[in-house]
Write a structure and sequence with these properties.
With about 160 residues, chain A is mainly α. Chain A has six helices and no strands. Helix content of chain A is about 65%, strand content about 0%. Chain B is about 80% helix and about 0% strand. Classes of the chains: A mainly alpha (about 160), B mainly alpha (about 100).
Chain lengths: ~160, ~100
Amino acid sequence: MTSPFDPEPIPSASESPLPSQSAPPSANDATNQVEPPGPGQIPPASSWLAVFLTTATTVFLAELGDKTQLAALLLAAESGRPVVVFVGASLALICSSLVGVLLGRWLSTVMAPNQLERAAGLLMVALGLWLGRQAMLHLAPLPLLPPGLLRAAIG
Amino acid sequence: MLALLGSTFITVFLAELGDKTQLAIVSISGTTNRPGAVFAGSAAALVLASLVGAAAGGSLASLIGPDVLQLGASVGFLILGARLILRSSRSQGEETPTP
């Protein structure tokens, strides 16, 4: 609790400046500042490699630690035949991604591209928020909760 | 062996339908002109992820921590989604939308 009557003396500008913990990172951030996205920065048709890498990175990150991977891990350990499990899981995942791609193609013929982009964007932002919330809850479960709520939940 | 193959296939396929991964694939595929690249990228990533899961025993996930990986994925989703929303609002401003 900080009060305006804190007895801590305010250090005046002198020859011995204290190394403050919350130093403003303005000097570093000024050089690392990212350019704001101007109009026309996103190309209308991305290259094949860009689409490939974007999809691969997103899907790979989203899939690691997912329930599918845990199921594959469990099956591999249970059966003692990891190669068979790997082949089966890979085939299933390829089929499901084919279903996803075809569904997206079909949606793009049914909906206007404008509407589809907005809906897909909103969906991805929602997924990102949900994933981030889950990860944050796992990484730091208790300090985010106020102590009163925790006490009420326990007792 | 065939039974194990089939049961793995069905388990993983059903677990994956409607998953966030597939929703991401649908979104990317619907908003780009390159479905081949989307399919190749997602298939490669999924095979790699299941290779990690089956063979390496999830060593990458245990090394880095699945929550950190999920946090990275959430940042990726947010960036992709924000880009799509920006693009849709921009093209809506250029072309006069029909009500």
